[in-house]
Structure formats: C-alpha cells, structure tokens
Here is the input.
Amino acid sequence: MTATELADRVGVACVFALWLALVWRAGPALRLPQQRGLWLTVLAATVAITLFQPRVVAACADLGVDTRTVALGRNLIGVLSAGLVLLFIVDSTRARHQRVMVVVGLVTALGSLLALDLLGVDQTAAPAAPQGPATPSSLYWLLLVVAHLAGDAVAVVVCWPYSLRTHDRDLVWSLRVFAMGSVLALFFWFGYLLHLYAPGLPLMPYLSIVISVHGLFRAASLLVPTATALGRAATALRTVWRLWPLWRDLVEAVPQVALAGPQRSRLRAVLRPRSSLALQAHRQIIETYDALLELQQYVRPGAYDTALRQAGEAGQRGDRLAAAALAGALGEARRAKLTGAAPSAPCPLPGVDRGSPATLLAIARMWPPAAGPAVIAPGPLRLRRP
Here is the structure.
C-alpha cells in the first residue's frame, strides 16, 4: 500500500468518525453551554477536513464546483475552526474583552482571506491543486497558516495545564485529547508551509495522514463523556455479575436486608435488570454487606482461623488466601443461620468492617467455599418493604 492510498483510507475513517461523534453528541452537547463550544469547534474542523479529502474534492468537481472554490471554502472554514478554538478556550476565563478581541480578529482574518482571493494578489497562471491553496498568494497563505498556528498553539498552551487543575475527569481527558490533536495540527501546518515553498518534496500524503489523525483526536475529545458512561456501565455490569452468587446466597439467609429478592438466574439479572445496572450494583453491595454483618452473629470463635488454615492447605496464597478464609467462615455462618442456630455475640471477620466493594468482590470470587454450603431448603423468603 502506498502512502497516498494509506492517507486516503485514514482520511475516510477520520471523516466517518468525526461525523459519527458529532451526531452522537449533538443532543447532550447543544443542551449544555459548557459543551456547546467544543461541539461547534469540532463541527467546523470536521467540515474543513471533509473538504480536504480528494474524493470529496472530486465529487464537488463532478457537481460543477471548481477546485479553487472548494479550497477557498475549506480554508475559510478552517480559519473559522481556529477562531472557535480560541473562543472555546476564552469562554472558560469569563473575560469579555478577550472574547471581543478574538471575534474581531476572526472576522478580520476571514475578511482578509476572502478579499485576497477575490483580488487575486500575487496570483499566477498555475491552477490550484486539489489539496493546495485557493490562490498562490504568499500573503494569503501566511495569513491562513498564522491563524491556524495561533489557534492551535493557544489550545496546547492553555488546555493541558488547565487539565491538571480541574477535578472533573471528563473535562480533564477532553482537554488533554484536544491538546494532543492541536499538537498534530501544529505539525501539519508547519509541514504544509514547507510544502508550499518546497513543492517538490513528497509531503502531502504524510501531511494528509497527520491531519486525519488530528481529526480522530478531535472526535475522541467529543466522545470522552460517552466513553466515561460506557466505562461506568461496564464496571456496574462486572460488579453485578461477579457479586450476584454471593449476594443471592446471603440474601436467602438474611432476607430482611433485601428490597427485592434475587431473580431466577444471574444472566436474567444482567439482561433484564429491575433497575439500572449502576443502581443494581449499588444495591447488591449494600445488601451483601448488611447480610454479612448480620451473619457475624453466627460465626463460631476460631472459624476464620480454621478456614484460613484449610485455604492455605488447599494452595491459596496472598489476597486469595484471605478471601478464601472469609468465604469459608461466612459459608459456615450462613449454614448455621439456615439450620436455625441461635445467634450469639457478633464475632467480627477481619477486613470487612468498612464494607469495601473490593473486599466483597474478592469474597465473591472465592464463593462458594471449597467445602460448599449444605443443601438446605430455606423457608419462604420474606422481604422488607422499601
């Protein structure tokens, strides 16, 4: 595969990812003022990158739009994107005079580019290349490159340090990914400037790849909240799945801790949860811990030490050894409760006093204990009303 073919494929993937990200995030972003500026910035960059693709330029030519007009539109939208980057950054400072300066500078740059193109300053008879300038004017291109370099340089200088001061994880990663995309944009425009003054160098395929990857970073910055939501959903799903057997068995022994009884199977609990997975995971953690505290009244003195020794003899080591010992002692307490043993003074199990989800999940990984709970038909499950 040649560099040109690779650049073409990466460009198509970039354009597809950008438009998909824009459509996916349009509703939430446009409703929230703090995300609206980023969405509009990525929209302008997406249009400019789309008009940079050779296939799009060729399609416009087939529709009767000449290459110069496409390139001019692309460059104007590109400068608009650079200006929106500055506005997006300045908006976070709440400085009105800075916003006014950026708007004035943006309007001046757009007007100057359009005027230079219409006046044909320094034009030659050579036609514009599909991905080249709208006009060969040196002043035109210097103004265009400076506008992009200014916007992207400010984005790098401001976004990365600000991401180190905020505690909003979505904002932190949005700013960092946006800054990394701006670094690639800086590299592209420096390389493009070199391409204009040394057209013999085969830089365009590689620069096309750079600007396409920059677009992927822009799309990623927009999708950070979606990625965070998916990560939280995956964590909740993993918690529900891993904790379900332990939670079900403990709730059967201590039904009063549960707001609702277990469903027929773990798969059903995941595929058809009674509430959101996050809420289901939260409930299972709390109810498992409450049941564990209740069952400590049925733990025999020395049961944990005995379970610890048995787990060590079975080959368990480290954290798995402690979790296996807790599971063994808890399993014995559960069996005692189900057989109707009388409660006694609580015998606290080590390491579970704070109800850490990590501790409960560690016990769940070792559940049921090696000895296995006795097969006992418990009485009817009586649940506390919420």
Summary: The first helix runs from residue 3 to 31. The chain is about 70% helix and 0% strand. The CA atoms of residues 165 and 172 lie 9 Å apart. Residues 122-130, 372-386 have pLDDT under 50 and may be disordered.
